Amino acid sequence: MANYLLLYHGGGMPETDEEKNKLMAAWGEWMKQVGDAMVDLGNPTSNVKTVDQNGTSEFSGDRVTGYSIVKADDFDKAVELAKTVPIVDEGGSVDVYETFRVM
Hints:
Mean pLDDT: 92
CATH architecture: 2-Layer Sandwich
Helix content: 25-40%
Structural class: alpha+beta
Low-confidence stretches: none
Oligomer: single chain
């Protein structure tokens, strides 16, 4: 069983308490569905800079808005799990990366 990094794109902060409660309930239900497969619920992300051999620059790509780490029997099962992430229903997307141990 491998771990998979789920990178979230899109979504947003709810503007009303009703929207916040609905969103939190959706994430809570998703966490229940994932159950023991959840390795790290993760967090939203905020500030971003790109760092390379030339120094730092403003980020210009598709911004990651959060992440989670899950475990699954194989890549296809991880992708199926990613389809159920609440951010997808909000118009966002999820990138699925398989991780592996080097040492």
